[in-house]
Predict the 3D structure of the following.
Amino acid sequence: MANSLKFSTFPPNNSLNKNAIPIVLIHGWGLNSGVWQPLLKLFSESENSNFQLITVDLPGFGINSAVDIKPYTLANICHQLELVIEQPAIYLGWSLGGLIATEMSLKYPEKVLALVTVASSPYFVEQQKNDWPGIKENVLASFHSQLAQDTAKTITGFLKIQAMGSPLIRQDLKLISKLVMAHALPSQKTLTDSLALLSHCDLRQKLPNIQQPFLRLYGQNDSLVPKTVIDKINRLAPQSDLHLFDHASHAPFISHLDNFYQVLITWLNSHFNENNTELTPKK
């Protein structure tokens, strides 16, 4: 590995209330932590100082473009997160980031106070024989082949799919692109390795082992994580809570920012005491 993961805190450590509860935000495939800027701004404008947000780019992405892990697995990514984020925290992961946050909660339960997944699935690929909704295999295969030809075009195409179904598709696509393109694009190898996680990782049978408070957030019009998968995940994680954002696609924290924030902060406040110095969930 070239070096350890870097992360950013909001507000900065020097202005952090010592009792604030950390929330680690993990982005999705092909992108970087720039996607969280609107949500960070909303948190900073609110009067709720009970939480500190931490953004981290995955190995090979954004400010961690020089971090090279071999092999590129969920376990190795979580190991790097566990090394640099020492304090227990709430882990919130979007799309692929949801897989990583889920793996963190299973592999390092003492480090994860609560789990929040956004537009994510324990298994992303459609399985017709098992009646499991997801991304069609030919769509993933096309992304793999496109990466070998034009990385930037592949990312742009993926962003368009993420925005499909949103009532504000052009506005959402423009904003996500602007936020993400503020950083250099990841290498073709990083994109290929991380896309393989979406193709092969399957955490379905492990979901019942999650002991932390668990919130699942979905978009009603999401074409990558179709709403038909929700009931199936309900049966795998009956202890979890969920919210479905009407008319939202794959990025509800962009298209439905205010509503997303209200749903998230209400759930967080219901599970964690204010000024909890021990950072433990409510009993």
About this structure: DSSP finds ten helices and seven strands in the chain. Confidence is low (pLDDT under 50) at residues 275-283. Residues 20 and 51 are 5 Å apart (CA to CA).
